[in-house]
Amino acid sequence: MEKTNGSNTLPELTLEQVRDSILSYLEQGNAGHYSIGRLYNYTVDNKLAEKNQYDSAQQFFSQHIKTLSQATLSRYGAVAREFTEEACGSTA
Questions:
Q1: How many beta carbons lie within 10 A of that of residue 8, not counting itself?
Q2: Which residues, 6+ apart, have CB-to-CB distance to 66 below 8 Å?
Q3: How far apart are CA 47 and CA 36, in angstroms?
Q4: Region at 65 (left for phi over 0; alpha for psi -120 to 50; beta for the rest)
Q5: pLDDT, tens digit, for every residue of 23-32?
Q6: Integer Cα distance of 88 and 43 in angstroms
């Protein structure tokens, strides 16, 4: 599995499932950062927020994932897009 962008590597998720998953990964500390990046990319790539009446993914995340800044979400997304999970050391 070489592609790391969220649209090709995640099952079909609802916006609520993305939110709940990110909140769950936050509890894992550093181990969850890669997965958060994949979920962020999935949301952006598939325009999930826009399909659910938000102006943008950024607006959705700022309202529902207040513990992470937009800069942090973008950074996690960039890492997840460019590197494999194994390269990031997120696997057990």
A1: 12
A2: none
A3: 16
A4: beta
A5: 999 888 888 8
A6: 21
